[in-house]
């Protein structure tokens, strides 16, 4: 097995959560398998999540924690985001991290014709998503819009391919058996660096 450089981002804004637990499970398994792992918890990151006055011609200055996130992102060969789904989307602070750092000239080049050129090629991504919505409702009635947004409009857009999503449903009040099953699945992904 090839050793990978893996960035694990816990996208849950609370100090303790199931998402943090799963992120740590992934990171621990990856380290045990010999991968080089860096871990970030969004609740530890102090930054203004509002893009505010920024634009393509006038960027809002990045706080040091955002600059460090970008360094870690560029260092990584594989990026893992662990996040809850809230109201069909990402938590505001996680979305704010993306809004503030996934900028032209940094993660994509918008100067050419057609679609912008991704600048994070040669890397892969994994999203570990939890939700209270049953998997069948999210898949068959809503057609998994957050999967599409994360994979196609964010991660693959900037070059993180393949971008895979694993979804753990009805996570608000899981049984111990459900959590144990999710722990094993996440640890197996971490061990393989996927």
Automatic annotation (TrEMBL):
The protein, known as: NAD(P)H-dependent oxidoreductase
Question: Is Oxidoreductase one of the keywords UniProt gives this record?
Answer: yes
Q: What superkingdom does the record give?
A: Bacteria
Pfam family, any one: Flavodoxin_2
Keyword vocabulary terms for this entry: Oxidoreductase
Q: Name a GO molecular-function annotation.
A: NAD(P)H dehydrogenase (quinone) activity
One GO CC term, this protein? cytosol
Under the heading SUPFAM superfamilies, the entry gives: Flavoproteins (SSF52218)
Mind telling me which InterPro entries this protein's record contains?
Answer: Flavodoxin_fold, Flavoprotein-like_sf, NAD(P)H_dehydrogenase_qn
Stretches assigned to the Flavodoxin-like fold domain = 4-181
Homology family:
Belongs to the NAD(P)H dehydrogenase (quinone) family.
């Amino acid at each position: 097995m090839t050793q990978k450089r893996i960035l694990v981002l816990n996208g849950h804004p609370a100090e303790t959560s199931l998402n943090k637990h799963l992120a740590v499970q992934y990171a621990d398994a990856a380290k045990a398998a010999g991968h080089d792992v860096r871990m970030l918890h969004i609740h530890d990151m102090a930054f203004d999540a509002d893009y505010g006055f920024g634009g393509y011609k006038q960027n809002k200055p990045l706080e040091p924690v955002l600059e460090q996130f970008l360094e870690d992102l560029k260092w990584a060969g594989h990026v893992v985001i662990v996040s809850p789904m809230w109201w069909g989307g990402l938590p505001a602070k996680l979305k704010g991290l993306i809004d503030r750092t996934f900028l032209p000239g940094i993660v994509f080049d918008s100067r050419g014709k057609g679609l912008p050129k991704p600048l994070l090629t040669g890397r892969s991504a994994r999203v570990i998503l939890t939700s209270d919505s049953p998997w069948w409702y999210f898949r068959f009635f809503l057609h998994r819009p957050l999967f599409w947004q994360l994979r196609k409009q964010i991660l693959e857009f900037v070059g993180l391919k393949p971008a895979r999503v694993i979804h753990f449903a009805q996570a608000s009040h899981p049984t111990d058996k459900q959590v144990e099953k999710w722990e094993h699945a996440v640890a197996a992904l971490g061990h393989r660096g996927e």
